[in-house]
Design goal:
- The complex is a heterodimer.
- Chain A is an alpha+beta fold.
- In chain A, about 25% of the residues lie in helices and about 25% in strands.
- Chain A has 5 helices and 9 strands, in the order H-H-H-E-E-E-E-E-E-H-E-E-H-E.
- Chain A has helices at about 5, 30-55, 60-70, 150-160, 190-200; strands at about 75, 95-100, 110-115, 120-125, 130-135, 145-150, 170, 175-185, 205.
- In chain A, the strands form 2 sheets. In chain A, strands 1-2-8-4-5 form a 5-stranded antiparallel beta sheet, sandwiched between helices.
- In chain A, a hairpin with a 4-residue loop joins strand 4 and strand 5.
- The N and C termini of chain A lie far apart (about 115 Å).
- The mean pLDDT of chain A is about 80.
- Chain B is of the alpha+beta class.
- Helices cover about 20% and strands about 30% of the residues of chain B.
- Chain B has 2 helices and 10 strands, in the order H-E-E-H-E-E-E-E-E-E-E-E.
- Chain B has helices spanning about 5-25, 50-60; strands spanning about 35, 40, 70-75, 90-95, 100-110, 125, 140-145, 150-155, 160-170, 185-190.
- In chain B, a hairpin with a 2-residue loop joins strand 1 (about 35) and strand 2.
- The longest helix of chain B is centred in the first third of the chain and has 24 residues, at about 5-25.
- Chain B is globular, with a radius of gyration of 19 Å.
- The chains are: A alpha+beta, B alpha+beta.
- The interface between A and B is large, with 60 and 58 residues.
């Protein structure tokens, strides 16, 4: 039989079917298998992307604050004005102050006299996790005194000072680097200079650890001596 | 598996996975979102136990979240009927607020949470600067044109808008009931 006789009868709904085996000749089950593999892979990619965004973000709050804040001491964020915002979504009625900390250098302490109407302090790691926050209502006095330490510094501190200090709150940080963010509310425009001055008076300091053998050079404030 | 099929599967999976992740982060997805009328809040934002979508969302925008110990932020980019807030329309923010020591209401562009320039330098209200009715309720008019009373200036050229209602020191954030939060209504007025 000539070849032309084999080709000619192909017509109607069967006409699309190619004679050779290839991409389009795969059966239905195989198509579903490929779809299933695609969806499972897509789900994995989706989850990995969501989890990776905080690590890969270059314009997150840590990066932006790290770019403008002084390495030591407190930095007041400039008042939010249109076109001149250091962070998106800042509240224009709030005065913000930031202190960077790096616990690899030593424990970090923050002390502030806080007059005014509302204030709060939050401690964030560079991954954006707030591990401690307090506001004026929860605080017992009009000033706050907070020390943060990493796990190793905390263990050493507990050994040196087994009795808890009533005046100073000591918090264990889950990471070595991050920042403290102070918020203070400006309840009326005329109050702004006073609130800014109060936030600027915040003292942020890193204690350089004392030499190991000598008598420890303690932090500036007196502590109860457990040996006495 | 033939190489053409392998490559197709990988490419389609990558597009679907990354695309859906992007939409989820740009959109208002979050397992722990609280909705009250037009307002949405992510009370776990910044917390150790925050869900990955909320964390990715804040990492992308660069906002600093408010922790529950400090307060709660409610966001609205649509009115109470679900229509998007836009610069050419007037909006009335009316009603009462949940219990809080202080609150502030601020108007931003929806796209990048930037403030909207205006000659009066009025970007928002606080609970202490607002004019109230005798019964304690209040009306705020968001409009590109000057209005009597509590006027919050918007801009006709600003496209999508976002209102952020921040409650500082509120029992909602620290274990209060979520079900009966009473937030102000967001009613659309005249448009140009």
């Amino acid at each position: 039989m000539p070849v032309s006789d084999q080709i000619a009868p192909i017509r109607g709904p069967m006409a699309w079917k190619p004679a050779r085996r290839g991409w389009r000749s795969i059966d239905r089950g195989r198509v579903w298998l490929l779809v299933a593999i695609t969806l499972v892979l897509a789900a994995i990619v989706h989850i990995v992307t969501i989890l990776a965004i905080p690590r890969l973000a270059t314009r997150d709050s840590w990066s932006r604050i790290n770019a403008i804040a002084e390495p030591a001491g407190i930095t007041l964020l400039p008042r939010a004005r249109p076109g001149d915002e250091v962070l998106p979504g800042l509240d224009p009625s709030i005065v913000y102050g930031v202190c960077l900390f790096d616990l690899r250098e030593g424990p970090f302490a923050i002390t502030a006299p806080m007059p005014g109407d509302y204030w709060s302090v939050s401690f964030q790691t560079r991954d954006g996790v707030i591990f401690y926050a307090v506001n004026d209502e929860a605080a017992t006095s009009r000033r706050f005194d907070i020390e943060i330490r990493n796990a190793a510094q905390m263990r050493r501190f507990r050994l040196e000072y087994p009795e808890p200090d009533e005046e100073i709150l000591t918090i264990e940080a889950p990471a070595n680097t991050g920042f403290a963010l102070i918020r203070a509310l400006v309840s009326a425009p005329s109050m702004r200079p006073r609130v800014e001055a109060a936030v600027a008076a915040t003292v942020c300091e890193t204690f350089v650890p004392p030499p190991p053998v000598e008598e420890p050079v303690g932090p500036p404030r007196p502590r109860p001596n457990p040996l006495r | 598996m033939p190489p053409f099929q392998t490559i197709s599967v990988i490419v389609v999976a990558a597009v679907l996975g990354i695309g859906s992740a992007w939409l989820a982060v740009v959109g208002e997805v979050g397992f722990e979102a609280i909705r009250a009328g037009a307002w949405t809040s992510w009370p776990t934002a910044g917390a150790t136990e925050a869900d990955p979508y909320v964390r990715a969302r804040f990492a992308r925008t660069g906002e600093v979240p408010i922790s529950a110990a400090e307060g709660t932020a409610f966001y609205a980019n649509a009115d109470s009927d679900g229509e998007a807030l836009i610069g050419t329309c007037d909006y009335l923010v009316t009603g009462r607020t949940p219990a809080a020591q202080w609150w502030t209401l601020t108007l931003y562009r929806d796209a990048d949470l930037s403030l909207i320039e205006n000659p009066t330098e009025r970007y928002g209200y606080t609970s202490s600067t607002i004019l109230r009715e005798p019964d304690g309720s209040f009306d705020i008019v968001v409009s590109p044109r000057a209005r009597p009373g509590n006027w919050l200036p918007s801009d006709e050229k600003a496209e999508a808008l976002r209102l952020v209602f921040r409650l500082y020191d509120t029992p909602i954030a620290t274990g209060g009931s979520v079900a009966d939060i009473e937030m102000p209504r967001l009613e659309k007025g005249a448009c140009r």
